[in-house]
Write a structure and sequence with these properties.
- There is one protein chain.
- This protein is mostly helical and 379 residues long.
- The chain folds into three domains: 67 residues, 434 Repressor (Amino-terminal Domain) (Orthogonal Bundle), CATH 1.10.260.40; 176 residues, no CATH class; 64 residues, no CATH class.
- It contains 19 helices and three strands.
- Strand 2 and strand 3 form a beta hairpin.
- Helix 2 packs across helix 3, helix 7 packs across helix 17 and helix 15 runs antiparallel to helix 16.
- The C terminus is likely disordered.
């Protein structure tokens, strides 16, 4: 452990736990100004303050003395921050992602792979073409429904972070880290699955189309990401053969389990492809609202719940099955309850010993880290 207390570590833990400087100061019997000075590295906290901080947050002193990571940008959270998401909530969600990223990096040190991604920059391509090219790069059939989206992304070098925080304004965000070599999609605790799958595909669109922050500032960036997600999950050549001008909510309910998207996504896809008129689309959305289906659609339970697997698999390699969270929390100097809440969003072997059974698509990848194909690990 170094002799340097990093103020940015205090800020990371404070924002992750949802405290303002004033709120934390009150709990530590300090002033807001004192907390601000510590976070800015103008002053160092006393041993008594560090002890109180550790007791309050569950983060042990070595955490605050470890050099912080500096390559974890806001990514598509930048766009949300510019809209209606509060700065406090943005910072909280961002720090959850940062903390999970640190856990990933530490666990990956055991096997020391340099994971290659199959996402190429497509800023000069249309969303439709980019989606088709990425399906091809991922080894996915150009026309078939995608059954396990999270497994396909992890297998192709996308890091999936499961953040145990729910927020009604959005379900996911994305960013490039590690000198733009590592794509990340962070998933919030969101239900139902159909909505989350589209959100993940939307963020994949940002990764493919908007690698630079300036691209995210484009007023059309969200629309382009939606168009990408629609083509990626609902390829025009195949979905146009089953969507008809006389579609009804009942017929869309029947299509929903096969394609793994919401009724609302199917309506918008039909409208964007010119299969139905804007007027009919508006009418169908009105019917959804009258039935109370805008937030909770029928047949969502028919879509298997997907959980990312890689982080849990890495933890199992070092800490066994079931994961010894007490030992892991000690090694990482991190709050044990917080650590467990993170892994609730991942597919752990102890939750389902038979990884191929049940409604949850587990995505077991075999011995050690074999989910990373040999061509993805650079020696």
């Amino acid at each position: 452990m170094s002799n340097v207390f990093y103020g940015s570590r205090l800020k990371q833990v404070r924002e992750l736990m949802g405290f303002t400087q004033t709120e934390l100061a009150k709990k530590l019997e300090k002033t807001q100004a004192a907390i601000a000075k510590i976070e800015s590295d103008f002053t160092k906290p006393s041993e008594d303050t560090i002890e109180k901080l550790s007791s309050l947050t569950g983060f042990q002193p070595p955490f605050f003395y470890a050099p912080p990571l500096d390559d974890y940008p806001l990514g598509s959270l930048f766009f949300r921050k510019r809209q209606s998401v509060s700065t406090k909530k943005t910072n909280e969600i961002h720090k959850w992602g940062l903390t999970i990223f640190e856990i990933f990096k530490r666990l990956l040190e055991d096997i020391n792979p340099d994971i290659k991604t199959n996402i190429s920059p497509f800023a000069d391509k249309s969303p439709k073409l980019a989606a088709r090219l990425l399906r091809e790069a991922f080894g996915v059939s150009p026309e078939a429904p995608i059954k396990n989206l999270t497994k396909i992304l992890e297998t192709n070098g996308v890091f999936l972070f499961s953040i145990p925080v729910a927020y009604d304004r959005f379900d996911a965000f994305s960013l490039w880290t590690n000198n733009k070599k590592s794509p990340v999609i962070a998933i919030l605790a969101t239900e139902p699955v159909d909505r989350l799958r589209f959100s993940i595909a939307h963020e994949l669109g940002h990764l493919a189309l908007h690698q630079n922050t300036a691209d995210l500032a484009d007023k059309d960036s969200e629309l382009k990401a939606d168009l990408f997600a629609s083509e990626f999950l609902l390829p025009e050549e195949s979905i146009s053969t089953v969507l008809r001008s006389n579609i009804t909510l009942t017929s869309l309910i029947q299509l929903k389990p096969k394609w793994g998207v919401s009724i609302q996504a199917l309506i918008k896809r039909a409208e964007n492809l010119g299969i139905i008129s804007k007027r009919k689309s508006q009418y169908m959305f009105t019917q959804l609202s009258k039935r109370g289906w805008r937030k909770k659609e029928p047949a969502s339970e028919t879509i298997p719940k997907e959980k990312p697997r890689l982080l849990a698999q890495l933890a199992e390699m070092r800490y066994g099955v079931p994961i010894n969270f007490s030992k892991m929390a000690q090694d990482f100097s991190i709050n044990a309850h917080l650590l467990k809440s993170i892994f609730n969003g991942y597919s752990c072997r102890q939750d389902s010993p038979n990884q191929s059974s049940g409604k949850v698509l587990q995505g077991e990848f075999g011995n050690q880290i074999s989910m990373l194909r040999k061509d993805q690990i650079v020696s």
